[in-house]
Amino acid sequence: MLFDFSGTLFRLEQDESWLTELTDHNGDPLDIEAQAELMRRMTAPVGQVVELDAEHVHAWHHRDRDPELHRKVYLEVLKKSGVPQADQAKALYDRLIDPSQWTPYPDTEAALKAAAERGLKVGVLSNIAFDIRPAFTARGWDAYVDEFVLSFEVGAIKPELEIFRKAVQALGVPATETLMVGDSEEADGGARALGCEFALVDPLPTAERPDALLTALRTHGVG
């Protein structure tokens, strides 16, 4: 079993306390629609979310391989998304990369536990530029995860075959016996090219998606 992280097991939820002090170019508070769009741009798994110059385009495409490029391009994304104050952008970015700020889906623990109790090898495979392990260890859920395969640590990103290959090798399970669960057909669905099965979940707000992970597992004979 392989699970994606953002939009699959956890989600960076809109937190009013983060955004109330944000101001636009005119010094006015960001309205609710602007706040929601800002959060979408911060967590979009694929696709360039704002117009960037060549230097930042390069950083965008390689952001999940290199933490420095990740920080550089997301500060630019925030600037282009209506957060011109550098101190405000930096504070918001620091929350983005803090695992304790991410919210698990209601069935994340149950899904991880169900897979582990079936005797399946479980991995978390993420395009990410920071260490997400603390989000699991803080809850004791690392006990259900055999391997974390993080793009910035292995130097490859989904949907490149290399990162899926590294993940199944780390688990010691053939790709043809592995299920990848993720929220992006483009990125996570790339596992099919290696021979994995794939289950798509919708990256809805956590309150609106109570059991998609468990449903995906049951559909594929797990749980």
Automatic annotation (TrEMBL):
GO terms for molecular function: hydrolase activity. It comes from the Bacteria. Keywords: Hydrolase. Pfam families: Hydrolase. The keyword Hydrolase applies. This is Hydrolase.
